[in-house]
Amino acid sequence: MAKNEPKEASKTKTILASTGPAWAELFAEGDADKILGRLRTELSGLLKKWSRRLQRYNVVFYYQPEFMTDDDTDDIYRALKRGPAGEKDVLMLLVSGGGQTQPAYQISKLCRDWTKNRFIVGVPRQAYAAATLLCLGADAVHMGPLGNLGPVDTMYSYTNGQRVSGMAHIHSLQTITRWVTESPASQAFWTEILSKDETFNYFDTGIYEREEEASVQWAERLLIAGKSDPDRAAKIAKYLTYEYKSHGFVIDRNEATDIFGAASVVRSSNELAFGEEAYDLIASVDKGLRAIEPDGNNIGYGGVKVVGTIDDIVLLPPPVTRSRKKSQDSELDEPPN
Fold first, then answer.
1. CA atoms lying within 13 Å on the CB side of residue 315
2. Interacting residues of 153 by C-beta distance below 8 A, sequence separation 6+
């Protein structure tokens, strides 16, 4: 263990240095009010710097290290309500590993309802699963070189923490059926296995299939809201749900262009340049907070999230604290997608 300590210390030092001396001092002090104040000030300065080039937009942020939940829907709604609906186009900076389907759908629809003409999403880094679903309601997605989308098939969580795609369950039964067809003598073997498996529920198969069909429906509706014709929407929705064999498959901007077309995936723009700068700032603070080692004189943090406007920045508690709270609040600790 001791052998790895210098390497970890070096990593922390690099993170702090990359955010500047003043930030390093704030991280060392660990004062939440000062960290929040500094981040708001710098993001405000960034918005001012880009104000002329982004003047037609109502800019909202969605930088969420955790899973997308209904709370995020409320935060985005409050942020949008600060300006009249239909007065400006909506630009969202989106960085998310995914989460629940329903809030992703609602957030996308909210942004569409609030925009004057065009809803644009900037994706400087990951926008996986439910975050990809959110993107489907946009007029265009502006993706950086490291921007990534992902499949939208539904995920299920087990008590042991393992997350599995609903498609995996369906494919398992299809595989067993094929094996029995190819080798009829194995039928008795599989009958015994399945009859003794107390966790196996035949009704789950139908549930998984319906959920995957629902994923297609969510995607189709958002694509149509984003001005796709029904045939194109159906084709893309099914492709994103069924085509990829791994839920973690990375869809970069080249592949995204193949799926959605060059008009829907923008590679260079003021919107994207702003998004890259905003991401660099927020991500640097996020990493700096995570690198803090509590020593009795300061507080540890689990990072930062910005969902809404610069007034909606939240410093997250350490992961252990978050897990304990989640287990107290709900039995559904992990989202389905």
1. 21
2. 165, 166, 167, 212, 215, 241, 242, 244, 247, 337
Confidence (pLDDT) at 66: 84
Range 17-40 burial, b when 16+ CB lie within 10 A, else e: eebeeebbebbeebeeeebbeebb
- Residue 48's pLDDT band, with cuts at 50, 70 and 90, is very high
Averaged pLDDT, 245-267? 94
Instruction: Summarize pLDDT for 14-38 with one digit per residue, the tens.
Output: 444 444 558 888 888 878 888 889 9
Give all domains of the chain, ordered by start, each with its CATH number: 2-150+250-329 (3.90.226)
Measured distance CA(169)–CA(188) in Å, rounded: 21
> Using an 8 Å Cβ cutoff, are 305 and 65 in contact?
yes
Residue 308 and residue 76 in contact, taking contact as beta carbons nearer than 8 Å = yes
DSSP bridge pairs for 127: 96
Q: Rounded to whole angstroms, how far apart are CA atoms 152 and 168? A: 14
CA distance 72 to 306: 10
Distance CA 95, CA 280 (A): 11
CA distance linking residue 107 with residue 169, whole number of Å = 29
CB 232 within 8 A of CB 84: no
Cα–Cα distances in Å, from 64 out to 88, 187, 305, 312, 313?
Answer: 24, 48, 5, 12, 10
Residue 113 has pLDDT above 70, yes or no: yes
| Cα–Cα distance for residue pair 167/162, rounded to 1 Å | 15
